[in-house]
Amino acid sequence: VQLLQANRNRIYAFILSLVANKNDADDIMQETTIVMWRKFNQFQKGTDFMAWALAIARYQVLSYRKQNPGSRLVFGDAMMAALENESAQIIKQYDDRISTLKKCLKKLKDNDKRLIFMRYEENCPSRLIAERYGYSVRAINKALARIHDALLRCIRRNLAVE
User: Fold this and answer.
1) CA 100 to CA 19: how far, in whole Å?
2) b (16+ CB within 10 A) / e for 28-57
3) Backbone angles phi, psi at 10, to 5 degrees
4) Plot region of 124 (φ>0 → left; ψ -120 to 50 → alpha; else → beta)
5) Between the CA atoms of 111, 114, 119 and 124, what dihedral angle is there, to the nearest 10 degrees?
6) 73 has a pLDDT exceeding 60
7) Can you tell me the distance from the alpha carbon of 117 to that of 34, in angstroms, rounded to the nearest whole number?
8) Could you give the CA distance from residue 23 to residue 47 in angstroms, rounded to a whole number?
9) Angle at CA 157, nearest 5°, toward 100 and 105?
């Protein structure tokens, strides 16, 4: 459940990139989830869950294409392979960026971490944060902009090194 929850959006994005129709992607995602539940005992713990899940999603997309040949948008096999490859690379880059963001967040000062946590984890608007700490909304927004800038520089620096 945790693996599926953590990766659901990436799997769905992969499917959507291949079918380009939200309703179809929703149906395929549902079928993919069902197949993953049925076959989860075949997943080897410690291996790449995303690779396993995307392989299942790919087969579900292919199955959908066979069952719905009159679909509005149908790609040839070469185009499907290119889209799959590109989607997988984008997902990998996304994972790398999230991992790097987590590393950069750990480097922040405690006050900056607290601001980011309140803003994005607790979903507090700047006005509420300002009220809690006795600062102006402008001061909170400036602090958040400074933190965003520091995080962006840290991410770019780390990704360039990698």
Assistant:
1) 30
2) bbebbbebbeeeeeeeeeeeebbebbbebb
3) -70, -40
4) beta
5) -110
6) no
7) 35
8) 31
9) 40
Who has greater pLDDT, 99 or 60? 60
Regarding pTM above 0.70, the answer is no
**Whose structure tokens read 């410690």?**
46
Q: Which amino acid belongs to residue 78? A: A
- How high is the mean pLDDT of the chain? 84
Token representation of residue 90: 């984008």
Measured CA distances, 19 to 6, 7, 70, 84 (Å) = 22, 19, 13, 11
- CA atoms of 126 and 19, how far apart (whole Å): 39
Q: Which two tokens stand for residue 121?
A: 């984890």
> What is the rounded distance in angstroms from the CA atom of residue 76 to the CA atom of residue 53?
22
* Residue entry with tokens 């291949």: 18
- The C-alpha atoms of residue 43 and residue 49 are separated, in whole angstroms, by 8
AA letter at 131: E
Dist. CA 90–CA 84, nearest whole Å: 10
